[in-house]
Amino acid sequence: MHACTADEADRRRIGDDRMETPDDAASMRDTAQRSAHQGLPAAQSSLAEANLFGRGTPPDLARAITLYRQAAAQGNAEAMRRLGDIHAIGGPINRYNRYPAAAQCIAVDLPEAARWYVKAAEAGDAFAQEQLAIAYLAGLGVDPDPMQAERWLEAIGKERRAHAVFYLADQYLYGRGDVVPRDLAKGAHYTLIAAELGHPPGLAQLGALHEYGTGVEQDDVKAYAYALAAHDEGLPIDDHHFANQVAAFQARMTEGQQAEALQLFRSIRQLLHSDGTYL
């Protein structure tokens, strides 16, 4: 057990995003502690979370792991998944990269993370199913297995499937130290799959990859078409920024290229709203 470094904190991802006042956190902790002492798995998991994130109590990763294990032994799927997260990341996880000042970490153990994700996924936890699909796609703690990956991708539904594949694309595009080596071709491949699933950030990222020739051929026609498709599918981007993006493409493209991009955009839109499947 050791204190988390800044580099380790930068690797954090999935987690809880609730914000409570110190009094709220202490009250929730006391309630959970009373129930946890009665052996209630949901309360044990809640108390573990308080210890993990330092809500109403100093952060205590060892105590959190013990409580999560107690809850997991009684079949609590969330506790199983949290144990997977801790071993995959090495400590507390928060999607907004906010960590307790005294956050603690352990060594990353991907096989142990996968073992807990399997348990949680089999128990029906959708977040664990998503992480397990990623693990089987990338060989994180398990041998790469496309069939197992497909099994869990199908289980989580189209929206979460796209999110999982897009997350994996980012892992390859930017690398994750020794865990996931940077591989632009693989990053582009999984970005394409996310785009084909109608994921707006995936469509936007695929456009950017073609715009700059990152992992794919440089192609302004495809870049413009995918940028239009991302906006059409609801990418959260303000109108002014989008107008500037369109103007930049039009300024450097011929009329013929613009017409080709619009035709490709219409084809992409039709494909996204067909009944076709991509995984």
List the helices and strands and how they pair.
Layout lengths: L1 E2 L2 H5 L11 H16 L3 H13 L7 H13 L3 H13 L14 E2 L4 H13 L3 H13 L7 H10 L1 H18 L9 H13 L3 H13 L7 H13 L6 H14 L2 H18 L7
Antiparallel strand pairs: 1-2
Q: What class would the helix/strand composition place it in?
A: mainly alpha
Let me know the average pLDDT. 83
Radius of gyration: 22 Å
User: Which parts are unreliable, with pLDDT below 50 for 5 consecutive residues or more?
Assistant: 6-21
Strand tally is: 2
| Biggest sheet, spatial arrangement of strands | 1-2
Reported for the largest beta sheet, the result is:
2 strands, antiparallel
Query: Oligomeric status of the shown chains?
Result: single chain
Distance between the termini: 40 Å
What coarse outline follows from CA principal-axis ratios?
elongated
H/E topology pattern? EHHHHHEHHHHHHHHH
Helix fraction by DSSP (H/I, runs of at least 4) = 55-70%
- Beta-strand percentage? under 5%
The total count of helices amounts to: 14
Explain what this protein looks like in three dimensions.
With 279 residues, this protein is mainly α. The protein is built from 14 helices and 2 strands; from the N terminus they run βαααααβααααααααα. The longest helix has 18 residues. The chain is elongated and about 65 Å long.
